[in-house]
Amino acid sequence: MALKDLFNLSGKTALITGGSRGLGLQIAEALGEYGATVVLTARKQNELDEAKTHLEGLGVTAHVYASDLGDFASIDPTVEKIVAEVGRIDILVNNAGATWGAPTAEHPLDAWLKVMNVNLNGTFLITQSVLNRCMLPAGSGRIVNVASVAGLQGNDPHMAATLAYNTSKGGLVNFTRALAAEMADKGITVNSICPGYFPTKMTKGTLAYGEQAILESTPMHRLGGAEDLKGLALLLASDASAFMTGQNIAVDGGAMIV
Q1: Cross-strand bridge partners of residue 249
Q2: Which residues have CB under 8 Å from 36's CB, separation 6+?
Q3: 150-195: per-residue pLDDT in tens?
Q4: Backbone angles phi, psi at 204, to 5 degrees
Q5: What are phi and psi of 231, to 5 degrees?
Q6: What is the pLDDT of residue 223?
Q7: Could you give the CA distance from residue 123 to residue 96 in angstroms, rounded to a whole number?
Q8: Which keywords does this chain's UniProt record carry (predicted)?
């Protein structure tokens, strides 16, 4: 097989949660460029429609479905509808996420639950649905979780306290390992991307006051850019990573090595 064929996603369908903007949309661009039909879910229909128009302008076949991972009862019906209307899901990118900044002693319970429900509980339920409806019957699949370097370390005390986010992303890191081990003999790989700081809507507040400190503590002295996740996302979604599973890979400009 030619090397370029290992990355070819033609005929594959990729479901990307939280795919209407930010890192999810960047990943959709990458997988679509290499031939995948992309399916985006997110809460806001207008943002999904804008993303669909953007992707189609790049020549990518895209479908969009408004869905909230925090609404557990809607998850399996949404996956069922996608499979019925688009086809079997070959690649699942668990990208949707939520965060909350507050000192632990003052952290509201409802905010804690919101973060856990999206970042872990909803991710578990959509993964379970895709496994049962698509990947296990097919005996193949690629699951790519978007975790965070926040799941690989503690939190700089000079930055906003984000215990729920760090805890949920740490859970997703081990979700990746445990599920990878369970699925390893079933033709399904499970890996995660752990981004450092990228300029997105979620990081806007942090970057507003902490960008300079972040740049100073990052060996490459820059934030993540619009192309920096694409290569790894393509690798983990394609046959080029067929012998990789259970890996949590930091994309952070070297921040984790210092």
Answers
A1: 193
A2: 9, 10, 12, 13, 14, 90, 91, 237
A3: 999 998 888 889 999 999 999 999 999 999 999 999 999 999 999 9
A4: -55, -45
A5: -60, -45
A6: 97
A7: 8
A8: Oxidoreductase
Question: No. of H helices and E strands in the chain?
Answer: 10, 7
> Where does 3-244 sit in CATH, by number?
3.40.50.720
Q: β-strands 37-42, 91-94: how paired?
A: unpaired
Q: With beta carbons less than 8 A apart as the criterion, state whether 229 and 26 touch.
A: yes
What are the C-alpha distances in Å from 238 to residues 24, 103, 143, 248? 17, 40, 10, 16
Phi and psi angles of residue 31, each rounded to the nearest 5 degrees, phi first: -70, -35
Overall average pLDDT of the 97-125 stretch? 97
Give the residue extent of every domain in the chain: 3-244
Structure-token pair, residue 38: 């992309």
SS (H, E, C) 177-219: HHHHHHHHHHCEEEEEEEECCCCCCCCHHHHHHHHHHHHHHCC
Summarize pLDDT for 17-30 with one digit per residue, the tens: 999 999 999 999 99
Contact between residue 116 and residue 62 where contact means Cβ atoms under 8 Å apart = no
First to last CA, the chain: 39
In one-letter notation, the amino acid at residue 190 is V
Q: How far apart are CA 160 and CA 99, in angstroms?
A: 11
Determine the pLDDT at residue 158.
83
Neighbours of 141 (CB within 10 A): 22
- Residue 30 CA to residue 34 CA, distance in Å, equals 7
- Output the pLDDT for position 82: 98
Is 162 in contact with 150 (CB distance < 8 Å)?
yes
